[in-house]
């Protein structure tokens, strides 16, 4: 029996996602079934008790590409190195390229000159006690030339903060959008030209369905955190790589949730992954603590809201959650009505906090409203019934601003209409984070470009 | 229409619902501008799309495949319902209108709900569009555009239909959507009100079930059909069910909920940044790698890209025992059985041994 050591080096300097790997006996003479496991974040995996033979080691990276290496296991021990061909001098970007298919494409594609970004401005907005205000960027924007780091164009380093913030990005010929920034943790925002062939969100189509070129968004924006495990997990889930997500999820998602006090944003990503797999009910208390402790994140409340109305978790269990402590509801005889009230309370609390960090939260919000709409009388418009229910919800808790909930629901729905559904973090095409413009007047004809800052 | 019924009587079974809508009442025939006046009155925006000829053979092929291969299914085949809106004489007949699809969906829901070990398979081929505000898929049924109803009444909001299946007992639900997801402007100018959800059961959002959703197009993109023949997605799907989606579990080759999606994506999708065809997408969620069927002949789909110094795709590639494969553009594709395969460039004395394993065998710079 022999030992196979698998080393994974993605050039990210210690920050590596957990990657699923399969080890297959190439000619299937000494072992029939492939061994499927995961390479941990420190990049070293040892598999013992393998019979000598030829093996194929294959790792699926979160950006959709795979690394493959054949190894002859003849003696007691063999080592195989899986390494990523693309390197970036900036470790965080290297990590992002591994976890995002769009960036991995951008890293290798040369852009046609007409597709480079045009004049661009980047502003930071912060949700102060008296409303959203533009504030100074903590550091200068790092404008990068194509020669410097392939095709990446602008990079902004954003330090942690305890309130909601957005980055407003646009230009005279680039549609203005605001991008939610992760609170509590450090992050980077990378702006780069949209790769050729990558579909543009909100691109209008002609009558026959062909895209209107002038409505194409010429840039892509990626928000990157320092947690490649969370980034990788999200990538697998978003790409429908269910097997990969499940292989790493048991360890990664639980760990992320467990470390919620160090990295609440990573924990939120873990919660979404566990929600998709149905395992979230095991860690409900953790989720509830996450929502209680980190008030700049509304995602956790949206998840609890979805669980309350859209799952089979018992009502008693929901009421025991720390986030529900102190909540008193008017007595209702029908269990479904009581569940709906719990869901609407969580929804209302989420509205008070603001838009969710992740686009997945925006999807979840629409799903919850659909469930609230389920018993709508004939003739009601979409979400009108849910709106009426939220208007009439009675919660015996003075600290909640229930009167604001219906208008906040409308705001969130308006934001949904302008959301970039391809994005990982909530991105809304509007020029203010507190007011959503309903008409898309900001699409312009393409033209010449230069970099500028204001 | 029920085309197969094993009378499983509540025992675990596979229940299939196949819908193929091509002959839309209120859309013109290919090459024509307006639908025939005899079909009735319609919303003026409706005829921007043509009738299709691919969904009917596609839905029939999927239904036939399940009936012909029922001995390979993990759970025995319970029922197959096939709804196609046309008849062999070429005269248009109903078959996939909202009322008919609703009735079939209700029956399918009831059958699937009888046992948690049931497997629900939903296949839709026809026109689809996407709501740009919510990214939800809208499936158009045969009587879509009827002036007597709201514009969107005879269309289905797929995401909400899927949520409604959340409260169904069947723990494995596979959704196969062979439809476009583009956003034609004249449709999208009309508010998306009144869409059908087909089912009336209370929806459940988080179910802990295996619910993979495999689509023939990504958001904003169109799917690809072939005139009077199976669509591209349908052909790839059937090939994957037969060969390429095989994954080895113990001593058996099986198609699982995960391997089916991965294989359809791997076989059907072009290389990154290679120009279209349409890109397939896998979504939904799975909680375990549930086996769906066994595979007798596992194969890998070979894609060969040629080195600059080679004679290129026209000269092709020789596979020992399989023959020569060539084409007029890269990649040259062919099927290879699992295991070692010997390949040779024309004019090259050396044979190269490769190990084929489903779903893909990619040879770069051969």
Would you mind describing this structure in some detail?
The complex is a heterodimer of chains A (454) and B (366). Chain A is of the alpha+beta class and 454 residues long. Chain A has three domains: 2-83, Carboxypeptidase-like, regulatory domain (Immunoglobulin-like); 91-182 and 187-225, no CATH class; 242-427. Helices cover 31% and strands 22% of the residues of chain A. Chain A contains twelve helices and 16 strands. In chain A, a hairpin with a 2-residue loop joins β12 and β13 (174-181). In chain A, α6 (284-293) runs antiparallel to α7 (299-310). Mean pLDDT of chain A is 82; it is low at 106-117 and 444-454. Chain B is α/β, with parallel strands linked by helices and 366 residues long. Chain B has six helices and 20 strands. Chain B has helices at 55-68, 98-112, 158-164, 185-188, 232-244, 257-268; strands at 2-5, 14-20, 77-84, 119-126, 128-130, 137-140, 155-157, 172-179, 211-215, 246-249, 252-256, 281-285, 291-294, 299-304, 317-319, 323-325, 332-337, 339-344, 352-356, 360-363. In chain B, strands 1-3-2-4-8-9-12 form a seven-stranded mixed beta sheet, with helices on both faces. Chain B has a four-stranded antiparallel beta sheet with strand order 16-15-18-19, with no helix packed on it. The chains are: A alpha+beta (454), B alpha/beta (366). Chains A and B meet through α2, α4, α5, α7 and α10 of A and α3, α6 and β12 of B.
Helices, strands, pairings?
The complex is a heterodimer of chains A (454) and B (366).
Chain A: E1 2-9, E2 19-25, E3 35-39, E4 44-50, E5 53-60, E6 66-73, E7 77-83, H1 91-99, H2 101-108, E8 121-128, E9 131-135, E10 142-143, E11 154-158, E12 165-171, E13 174-181, E14 187-193, E15 219-225, H3 228-238, H4 242-258, H5 264-277, H6 284-293, H7 299-310, H8 315-320, H9 335-353, H10 359-372, H11 384-392, H12 405-417, E16 427-428
Helix pairs in contact in A: 1-2, 1-3, 3-4, 3-5, 4-5, 6-7, 7-9, 7-10, 9-12, 10-11, 11-12
Chain B: E1 2-5, E2 14-20, H1 55-68, E3 77-84, H2 98-112, E4 119-126, E5 128-130, E6 137-140, E7 155-157, H3 158-164, E8 172-179, H4 185-188, E9 211-215, H5 232-244, E10 246-249, E11 252-256, H6 257-268, E12 281-285, E13 291-294, E14 299-304, E15 317-319, E16 323-325, E17 332-337, E18 339-344, E19 352-356, E20 360-363
Parallel strand pairs in B: 2-3, 2-4, 4-8, 8-9, 14-20
Antiparallel strand pairs in B: 1-3, 5-6, 6-7, 9-12, 10-11, 11-13, 14-17, 15-16, 15-18, 18-19
């Amino acid at each position: 029996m022999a030992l196979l050591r698998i080393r994974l080096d993605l050039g990210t300097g210690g920050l590596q996602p957990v990657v699923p790997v399969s080890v297959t006996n190439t000619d299937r003479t000494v072992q029939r079934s492939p061994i499927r496991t995961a390479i941990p974040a420190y990049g070293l995996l040892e598999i013992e008790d393998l019979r000598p033979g030829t093996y194929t080691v294959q790792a699926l990276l979160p950006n959709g590409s795979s690394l493959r290496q054949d190894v002859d296991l003849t003696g007691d021990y063999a080592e195989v190195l899986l390494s990523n061909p693309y390197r970036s001098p900036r470790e965080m970007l290297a990590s992002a390229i591994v976890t995002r298919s769009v960036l991995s494409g951008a890293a290798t594609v040369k852009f046609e000159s007409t597709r480079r970004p045009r004049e661009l401005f980047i502003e930071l907005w912060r949700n102060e006690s008296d409303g959203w205000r533009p504030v100074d960027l903590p550091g200068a924007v790092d404008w990068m030339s194509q020669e410097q780091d392939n095709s990446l164009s602008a990079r902004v380093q954003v330090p942690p903060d305890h309130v909601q913030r957005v980055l407003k990005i646009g230009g005279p010929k680039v549609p203005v959008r605001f991008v939610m920034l992760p609170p509590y943790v450090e992050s980077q925002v990378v702006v780069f030209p949209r790769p050729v062939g990558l579909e543009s969100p909100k691109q209008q189509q002609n009558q026959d369905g062909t895209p209107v070129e002038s409505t194409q968004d010429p840039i892509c924006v990626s928000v990157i955190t320092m947690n490649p495990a969370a980034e990788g997990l999200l990538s697998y889930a978003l790409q429908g790589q269910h097997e990969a997500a499940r292989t790493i999820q048991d360890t990664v998602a639980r760990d992320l949730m467990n470390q919620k006090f160090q990295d609440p944003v990573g924990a939120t990503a873990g919660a979404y992954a566990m929600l998709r797999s149905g395992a979230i009910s095991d860690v409900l208390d953790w989720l509830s603590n996450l929502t209680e402790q980190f008030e700049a994140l509304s995602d956790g409340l949206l998840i609890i809201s979805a669980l309350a109305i859209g799952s089979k978790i018992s009502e008693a269990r929901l009421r025991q959650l720390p986030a529900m402590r102190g909540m008193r509801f008017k007595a209702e005889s029908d269990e479904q009505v009581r569940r709906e009230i719990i869901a609407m309370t969580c929804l209302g609390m989420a509205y008070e906090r603001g838009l969710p960090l992740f686009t997945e939260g925006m999807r979840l919000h629409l799903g919850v409203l659909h469930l609230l709409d389920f018993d709508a009388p004939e003739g009601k418009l979409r979400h009108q019934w849910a709106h009426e229910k939220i208007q009439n919800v009675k919660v015996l808790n003075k600290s909640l601003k229930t009167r604001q909930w219906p208008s906040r629901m409308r705001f969130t729905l308006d934001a949904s209409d302008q959301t970039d559904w391809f994005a990982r973090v909530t991105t809304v095409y509007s020029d203010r984070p507190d007011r959503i413009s309903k008409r898309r007047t900001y699409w312009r004809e393409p033209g010449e470009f230069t970099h500028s800052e204001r | 229409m029920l085309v197969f019924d094993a009378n499983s009587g509540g025992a675990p079974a596979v229940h299939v619902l196949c819908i193929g809508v091509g002959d839309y009442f209120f859309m013109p025939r290919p090459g024509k501008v307006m639908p025939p006046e005899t079909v009735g009155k319609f919303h003026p925006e409706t005829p921007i799309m043509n009738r299709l000829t691919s969904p009917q053979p596609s839905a029939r092929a999927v239904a036939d495949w399940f009936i012909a291969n029922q001995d390979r299914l993990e759970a025995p085949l319970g029922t197959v319902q096939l709804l196609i809106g046309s008849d062999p004489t070429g005269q248009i007949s109903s078959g996939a209108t909202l009322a008919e699809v609703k009735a079939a969906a209700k029956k399918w829901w009831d059958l699937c709900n009888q046992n948690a070990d049931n497997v629900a398979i939903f296949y839709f081929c026809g026109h689809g569009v996407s709501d740009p505000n919510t990214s939800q898929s809208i499936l158009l049924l045969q009587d879509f555009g009827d002036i007597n109803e709201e514009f969107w009444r005879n269309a289905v909001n797929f995401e909400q239909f899927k949520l409604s299946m959340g409260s169904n007992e069947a723990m494995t639900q596979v959704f196969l959507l062979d439809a476009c997801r583009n956003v034609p402007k004249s449709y999208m100018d009309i508010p998306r009100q009144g869409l059908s959800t087909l089912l009336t059961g209370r929806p459940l959002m988080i179910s802990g079930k295996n619910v993979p959703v495999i689509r023939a197009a990504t958001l904003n993109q169109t799917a690809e059909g072939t005139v009077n023949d199976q669509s591209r997605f349908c052909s790839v799907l059937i090939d994957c069910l037969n060969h390429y989606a095989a994954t080895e579990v113990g001593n058996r080759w099986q198609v699982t909920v995960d391997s089916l999606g991965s294989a359809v994506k791997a076989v059907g999708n072009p290389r990154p940044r290679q120009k279209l065809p349409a890109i397939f997408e896998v979504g939904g969620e799975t909680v375990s790698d549930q086996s769906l069927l066994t595979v007798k002949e596992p194969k890998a789909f070979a894609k060969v890209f040629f080195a600059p110094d080679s004679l290129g795709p026209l000269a092709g590639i020789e596979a020992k025992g399989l023959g020569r494969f060539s084409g007029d553009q890269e990649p040259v594709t062919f099927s290879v059985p699992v295991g070692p395969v010997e390949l040779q460039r024309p004019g090259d004395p050396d044979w190269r041994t490769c190990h084929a394993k489903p779903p893909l065998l990619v040879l770069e710079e051969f």
